[in-house]
Amino acid sequence: MADKTLHKRRHFDVNIPFENSEPVIVKILLEIKPEWSKEKREFKYFTEGISNKLVGCMLQNGSEKDLIMFRLYGNRTELFIDREQELVNVEFLHARGFAPKLYATFENGYCCGFIPGRTLETEEMSDEHLSALIAKKLARVHAIELPSDFKTGEPCAFSMIEKFLSVLPDKFDDDVKQTRYEKEILSKVNVVDELKLLKDKLGNCNVPLVYCHNDLLVKNIIRNKEDDDVSFIDYEYGAYNYSAFDIGNHFNEFGGVVIDPDYSLYPNKDFQLKWLRIYLEEKAKVQGTGDVITEEQLEKLYVQVNQFALVSHLFWGVWALLQANFSSIDFDFLLYSRNRLYEYLRRKDEFLNL
């Protein structure tokens, strides 16, 4: 197993299999942590992910702070996720205190440090105290000063959907999936039309362009009770984007990381306005602007957030079609796509007419 340096990163030219991954993980681990060679180790499997496999390793009876997380990319995800940019994201955010250290890469993933705590439960997304912590943390992420190379090109919300569509086959290889797709799901042609409608309406709107997480679902939020804080993980979709997309996407995720999200949990206007005020006040504080948040600002952002929530539904609806075609993970991506696209259609007129 060769160890070489890519862009000053430690790299191992080996693939870690999804099944029986522990022997290869240990080989890499002992190169990174040779002092662990004579110690007993234990593995921890994280089952919340629906596009990658996550395996942690730590010393028996050791601290979770020392756990090393191995992230194995899902099958063919490199077709629609820029894995090099993901590594840049991790390094960029680690340097600013928002992500753990990147230890090494391997052919189908990377390993990094671990953020102790627990992932949130769906019902906690609307908790008054925790939602305020999330709003403040996202404001700090959005306030990060970006180097010039992060600001190249257009915001990713629309361009990523276009990329997804460009690699989405016209027909599934699996006849059963193709039949379900034709009967249950918005066609590719119709999705393209809807994307054009949204891009024409929202593409040039006056929304701040910032570094966004873009996937702030419940299992990507870590609660550290000791510090009374939250942290965000899994920045694989992180990119330069509309801030309103990041927030609207987060509100969509109040429905839960399940095949059939409960969209009745989407936060109402009163909740959103309180959340958005906390967000704007924290962002002004971090940036030192001293801005006083007005009702007009809140109302404007409320409209933008809900309209970009529609873009979020298209984004993940098309993403799920790709996963249905390529992923080996046991999850009904077709049904998930249907549910996201149906919710888009259900909310479309309401949100665009705000």
TrEMBL record:
GO cellular component, one term: cytoplasm
GO molecular function: ethanolamine kinase activity
GO biological process: phosphatidylethanolamine biosynthetic process
UniProt family annotation: Belongs to the choline/ethanolamine kinase family.
Top-level taxonomy: Eukaryota, Metazoa, Cnidaria, Anthozoa, Octocorallia
Keywords, sorted A to Z: Kinase, Lipid biosynthesis, Lipid metabolism, Phospholipid biosynthesis, Phospholipid metabolism, Transferase
Species assigned in the record: Paramuricea clavata
EC top class named in words: transferase
Record protein name field: ethanolamine kinase
SUPFAM superfamilies from the UniProt entry: Protein kinase-like (PK-like) (SSF56112)
Any matching Pfam family: Choline_kinase
Lineage: superkingdom: Eukaryota
The enzyme's E.C. designation: 2.7.1.82
Pathway the protein contributes to: Phospholipid metabolism; phosphatidylethanolamine biosynthesis; phosphatidylethanolamine from ethanolamine: step 1/3
